[in-house]
Write a structure and sequence with these properties.
2 strands; two-stranded parallel sheet; alpha+beta; 2 helices; 35% helix; catalytic activity; Flavoprotein domain-containing protein; Flavin_trans-like
Length: 54
Amino acid sequence: MADHGEILEGVNVLLGVTGGIAAYKAVDLASRLTAAGADVRCVMTRSACKLIRP
């Protein structure tokens, strides 16, 4: 069985984040995807950057 750190190994994820309240959830999502082995890249709107500092 694969270790949790290897489940998404080799998977590329592009995470789009907008300026809604759910932007705060994107931080946790990116962290969980990375912990599972994914390579996560984020694209943020200017509004999202006001809520979350990249």
